[in-house]
Amino acid sequence: MPSSSPPAIKVENLVKTYGEVEAVRGVSFTVARGEVFGFLGPNGAGKSTTINMLCTLARPSSGTARVSGFDVSRERDDVRRHIGLVFQDQTLDGYLTAAQNLRLHAELYGIDPGVVPARMRQMLEMVDLWDRRDQTVATFSGGMRRRLEIARGLLHSPRVLFLDEPTIGLDPQTRSSIWRYIRALQETEGTTIFMTTHYMDEAEFCDRIAIMDRGEIVVLDTPAELKASVGADRVVLGTADDDAALRALRDRFGIEATVAEGAVTFHVESGEAFVPRLFAELNVPITSVAVSRPTLDDVFMRYTGSTIRDAESGGGSDLNRATMRVLSGARR
Ligand SMILES: Nc1ncnc2c1ncn2[C@@H]1O[C@H](COP(=O)(O)OP(=O)(O)OP(=O)(O)O)[C@@H](O)[C@H]1O
Ligand SMILES: [Mg+2]
Where in the cell is it found (predicted)? Predict the structure, then answer.
């Protein structure tokens, strides 16, 4: 048994190289028990490689990691028994029914047969698939499969659940219900959640976030602290002449703006107060203006030098964001 109360995950100077490629370059962090911990970063940052080492699916080149108190290199079987995995590539058996998939998993994990039926029902009800338990998975939609994978990943009551992009490509209802399960799990079973995502609205749900870039963790903090660290408001301007606007902003206001996604973008301390001055003094016709408080997108941009959309094409829609905001409001 693990000693009294080790952290859920403890990583020290973890390195993974593939030939010339340094996929992970010495990362260190600790995840507390019961924490929802998010990993963000552009494509190729090393997120999946890190998660794979923590799950014992890839061997570290150097450094150490302990999950639920067990060493991922020397105590792989112990680690495996205490974790659940939900990965992007689905691994359900399409010829089997939902219930058969879960039973197979229960056998693989050696779950006490006496508790399997009740636990199966609990998990299938949680993901709203109890009524579908006897249908073959081949007839399931993408969202239903994902929900079933989550139910399966939780069947053996893991101490730590690893989710690599759990909600990619799902509709807003499914994404928000998956978030509800995750929160419920954290509350009822004290499960630690370690996840990667490209969706900033989902990152908001995490207790803490690490942003990874080129194999290194560039920043690690709570969503609120990260947003506060970016500080200033973001102003996005549509103009008749973006180059002239960039020059005018630099010359008249001393502001270095950039053109991102077809609009002039810059940061100032108090956006609302600044906009009237712009209209009066910019001398370049302005066609639209938007002012926003810092978001995790801004944090991502600040620390990795690119927007999440540049890093990954499937960014969340406004509808998704609205849904997530409602949910996160409900949480507070
Ligand atoms: N099995 C492998 N063999 C060789 N190189 C690999 C292997 N797995 C990952 N890499 C390389 O390691 C780097 C990090 O990849 P990784 O999959 O960890 O990124 P990621 O942050 O998960 O990206 P994404 O957001 O696209 O999923 C990349 O340069 C990738 O090409
Ligand atoms: Mg990945």
Answer: Cell membrane
